[in-house]
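User: Structure please.
Assistant: Input sequence and predicted structure:
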Amino acid sequence: MDRILVRGGNRLSGTIPISGAKNSALTLLPCALLTDEPLTLRNLPRLADVDSFGHLLNQLGCSTMIEGARPEDFGRVMTLRAGKVTATIAPYDIVRKMRASILVLGPLLARAGEATVSLPGGCAIGNRPIDLHLKALEAFGAQMETTSGYVTARAKDGRLPGGKIIFPVVSVGATENALMAAARARGTCVIENAAREPEIVDLCNLLVAMGVQIDGIGTETLTIEGTDRLHGATYRVMPDRIEAGSYACAVGIAGGDVDLVGANPADMQATLGALRDAGVTVEEHRKGIRVSSDGKLGPLTLSTAPFPGFATDMQAQFMAMLTKAGGASVLTETIFENRYMHVPELARMGADIQVRGRSAVVRGVDRLVGAPVMATDLRASMSLIIAGLVAEGETNVQRVYHLDRGYERLEEKLSAVGADIERVSDG
C-alpha cells in the first residue's frame, strides 16, 4: 500500500496548474447516458473516482475513449457514447466505492424509463440526504421502490410527466439528479431551493449545450423544459476550486509565493476572503490566482454553508492551516455531522484542537512535529499533507488512496514548488 512522506520546513514558490474539478466531472460523466450521440469532456482530471465512474458507465452500455491532454487543458479528454443502454442496474460492488454513483439514477430513468441503483456506500436513507434524490424523482412523476439495499425508479409510459420539487434543505447531489432526470421529461420540471454551487452551473451549462432549455441557472429556482432527444456535445470541465483552495492553504501555512494557474476566483470568493482574513495575500489575475504568505497567520471564525458560503470541503484544510495561527480559531461544521475525523490525527502532530459538538476550537501552536498519521477521508487527507509541510521531521501519511480520489498528481505538483514530499510503496 502506498504512503506519502512529507518533510516539513520548505517554503513554496512557483506555479501549480489547477486540474479539472472532481465534483463537476462526476456530475458531467453520467450525462452521457442521456443521449445516443458522443459526449466529449475536456480537462478531465486523472483521478481514481473518475476511473471508477467510467467503469460503472461501461457496465451500463456506455463506451469510453481516453485521449491525452490538449495544450489549453491540464487533464485528459474522454469521449463517451451510450448508443444503447444495455443495463439499468448499478450494482453494489461498484456503487459502494463512491457515493457519486447515485448520480446515474436520474439519467438512467430519463433515458431508459427505469433504473435500479444500490444505495451508495451501504448508507441508510436519511443519514445523508439520499432521500431528497428520491423525493425529487417522485415529484417529477416517478414510481419509487426501495428493497434489499437497492432503489428502483420507474417512469410510467417510459418518460416522466414533469412536476415541482421544493427541497427542505439545499442538496447538491439531489439537485444534480433532479436536473438530469428532468432533461428528458415530457413536461416542465421546477426545482425550488436548488443548490447554487459552481458545479451545478457547470452541469446546467452542459445540459444546455446538449439541447435542454433551463431557466434560472445560478439561482435557487431552476425551470427545466424536457425534450425527447438530446444531442452530443464537447464540453470543458471547470477548474477545481477545492484543489485550488487546498494549495492556497498550503502556501498560507508554509509561506512562499505560488501562482495557481487555471483557478477561477469567481468560484472561490468565500475561500479567498477567509484566506485574506487570515493574513494570506491573494491576487486575482487573468490566468488564475497568486497566493503569497510569510507564514504568520491570524485566527478565524468560520462556519460552513452551501454556496456562496464557506465550503464544507475546505474545512479540514483551513483547520490544518490554522494550527499555526496566532490565537484561537473557531470552525463550525453545519453540513455533515461527522467531519472532524482528522482532528485526532492532527493532534498526533501536536495540534491543539478541541471539538465541541459541531464546532472545533483550534489554538495555534509554536511547532508541529512529524508523526505517522492515517488519512480518514479525502479532504482530511489533504489536511495532514498541509500540516506536514511545516512539521518538524517526517510525516508519514497512510491510506493515501483517499487522496488519489480527489487530487491529481499531488506529490508532483507540491514537489515542483519546493515541498519535500514523496510517495513510497510498501509493496
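Confidence is low (pLDDT under 50) at residues 122-127.
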